[in-house]
Design a protein that fits this description.
Length: about 150
């Protein structure tokens, strides 16, 4: 088991939406109250495993009740942190990626408020404009980071 602790500091002048909160389908009211996040997606890339949290576009064809991405709002100078656990025994390397985008007060709406922070519903169009921040690949055999 590998544990990734991360934090993101907003060094910009505007608020950021950080997409590490899952989606409306993945979270129940009980989880929201406990402050639990949905697990990130898993994607195998050759001999590596990429775990990622990001906004999702509306699938085609669209389902009757689509999954809507949730975000945390991180204001200028604030920090958000989280933790990702991954079973990585069969992989040579692993990395974590996180989607962020400008926080749009005109289109984001409050989904729920937990004890820690409000969760915001995001429009599907944000998936196309988000920036994906990825850690370097962690090579598990040497416990070092790959240079590319």
């Amino acid at each position: 088991m590998l544990r990734v602790d991360y934090f993101l500091r907003n060094g910009s002048d505007e608020p950021l939406a950080v997409f590490d909160r899952g989606s409306t389908h993945e979270l129940s009211n009980k989880q929201l109250e406990a402050g639990a996040n949905a697990p990130p997606s898993r994607k195998e890339k050759g001999d590596g495993l990429e775990r990622s949290d990001r906004a999702r576009a509306l699938p085609r064809p669209s389902p009757t009740v689509p999954r809507i991405s949730l975000a945390a709002r991180v204001d200028r100078g604030e920090v958000i942190d989280g933790r990702v656990d991954a079973e990585v025994a069969q992989y040579a390397k692993v990395r974590y990626c996180l989607g962020v985008a400008p926080f749009d007060t005109g289109t984001f709406t409050v989904f729920a408020t937990s004890s820690s922070l409000p969760l915001w519903r995001t429009p599907f169009k944000v998936a196309a404009i988000q920036q994906i921040l990825c850690a370097p690949w962690k090579v598990l055999a040497t416990t070092s980071f790959a240079s590319t």
